[in-house]
């Protein structure tokens, strides 16, 4: 009984969350598989249709799932309804045809897969009003099903089965109004990231370069920048574009920008070669709150302090300052003196009403020494955190 309840709760959740459709060439269907549930997401930018007029016909014949944790396949049948103006008209006609018998079999039982009967039923429709558009299998991997299906512009009926080991465990049906394309790309709305041309393979002579590019989902305001697989920081995305400084090590650097939305994560990677002097010691600061100002500073063994007020002093150089969020800031030291260097972060931003976590990466001869982080509370304005002390011979 408990499993039955879980099933019906799952179906209820599917009803609530699940079926929205983006009816265009890149409309998504994503399937997220967890231990407890399987969620199908369809997005619709056009007309949203809601009723499920076939439920009464098919529901008694569909096997009841005990759990959906092992779903390994999503199978979809599409019936294009080009001549029908609306769901109600279709339903009235459909129900008058009394298709129950065609879905039934003489020896039906709860374990039998209703799908072959449904396929037979659908395939029987080849006319102008009902036309079988196809049966499509999407394999579920990594919690997501991707693939391409075909449908005709206009009203389409989708029968979606969640299957395990070739057997339908549960199913949903739904009408979708396909507006402008005959191919629906499932899972394709994860944002595409593209660096601007000319960046990949470029050679620069300064340790700070600017990377820029586009993100196809222009509703996003964040992406992630990953430098040499070590440093990872948020960057701002505005109207589908990004531009951010990046601190390079001597030699070839791998720069990745990744962006995520409800349909998944996609990324682009470039290499940039920095031909210049290797920093014997450097500290890089990034933080996680937009529109806030953190300040990196370093004090050398002589007590000289390098920060945005004194960006080049005592052999230390602030290569890049950032006053509006995320960083990076970087201080490089070439031929450092013997003794102790103090690396500190000052929370200079007085505006944020929430905490900000600062992360400092310390490199010695371009090898990562340590990563330190600290969360400044909203009340920590102008407070200083000593991230590290590095003693050099
Ligand atoms: Ca700053
Ligand atoms: Ca910034």
Number of individual domains: 3
User: Which whole number gives the mean pLDDT?
Assistant: 76
Ends: how far apart? 71 Å
Q: Identify the strand order in the major beta sheet.
A: 21-22-23-18-25-26
Shape: elongated
Q: How many DSSP H or I helices?
A: 5
- The percentage helix is 10-25%
List the uncertain runs: 1-52, 55-69, 106-110
Described by strand count, sense and barrel closure, the largest sheet is:
6 strands, antiparallel
Structure description:
This protein is 11% helix and 46% strand. A 6-stranded antiparallel beta sheet has the order 21-22-23-18-25-26, with no helix packed on it. The N and C termini lie far apart (71 Å). It has 5 helices and 27 strands. It folds into 3 domains: 2-186, no CATH class; 190-276, Immunoglobulins (Immunoglobulin-like), CATH 2.60.40; 279-393, Jelly Rolls (Sandwich). With 393 residues, the protein is mainly β. The structure holds calcium ion (2 copies). The site of one calcium ion has 4 residues, from loops. One calcium ion is lined by residues 322, 324-326.
């Amino acid at each position: 009984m408990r499993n039955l309840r879980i099933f019906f709760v799952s179906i209820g959740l599917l009803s609530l969350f699940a079926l929205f459709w983006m009816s265009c060439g890149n409309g998504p269907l994503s399937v997220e598989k967890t231990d407890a549930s399987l969620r199908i997401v369809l997005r619709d930018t056009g007309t949203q249709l809601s009723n499920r007029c076939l439920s009464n016909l098919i529901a008694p014949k569909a096997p009841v799932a005990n759990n959906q944790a092992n779903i390994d396949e999503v199978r979809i049948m599409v019936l294009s309804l080009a001549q029908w103006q609306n769901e109600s008209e279709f339903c009235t006609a459909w129900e008058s045809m009394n298709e129950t018998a065609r879905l039934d079999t003489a020896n039906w039982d709860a374990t039998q897969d209703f799908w072959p009967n449904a396929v037979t039923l659908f395939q029987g429709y080849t006319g102008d009003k009902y036309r079988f558009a196809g049966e499509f299998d999407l394999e579920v991997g990594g919690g997501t099903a991707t693939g391409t299906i075909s449908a005709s512009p206009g009203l389409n009926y989708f029968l979606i089965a969640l299957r395990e080991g070739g057997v339908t465990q549960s199913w949903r049906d739904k009408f979708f109004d396909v507006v402008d394309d005959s191919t629906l790309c499932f899972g394709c709305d994860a944002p595409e990231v593209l660096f601007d041309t000319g960046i990949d393979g470029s050679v620069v002579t300064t340790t700070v370069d600017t990377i820029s590019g586009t993100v196809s989902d222009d509703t996003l305001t964040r992406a992630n920048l990953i430098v040499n697989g070590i440093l990872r920081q948020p960057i701002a995305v505005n109207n589908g574009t990004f531009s951010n400084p990046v601190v390079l090590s001597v030699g070839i650097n791998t720069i990745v920008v990744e962006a995520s939305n409800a349909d998944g994560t996609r990324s682009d990677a470039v290499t940039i070669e920095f031909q210049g002097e290797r920093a014997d010691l450097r500290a890089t600061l990034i933080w996680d709150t937009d529109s806030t100002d953190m300040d990196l500073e370093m004090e050398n063994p002589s007590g000289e302090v390098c920060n945005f007020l004194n960006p080049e002093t005592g052999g230390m150089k602030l290569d890049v300052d950032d006053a509006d969020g995320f960083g990076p800031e970087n201080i490089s030291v070439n031929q450092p003196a013997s003794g102790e260097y103090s690396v500190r972060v000052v929370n200079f931003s007085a505006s944020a009403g929430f905490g900000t976590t600062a992360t400092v990466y310390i490199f010695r001869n371009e090898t990562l020494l340590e990563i330190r982080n600290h969360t400044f509370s909203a009340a920590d304005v102008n407070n200083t955190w000593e991230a590290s002390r590095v003693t050099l011979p």
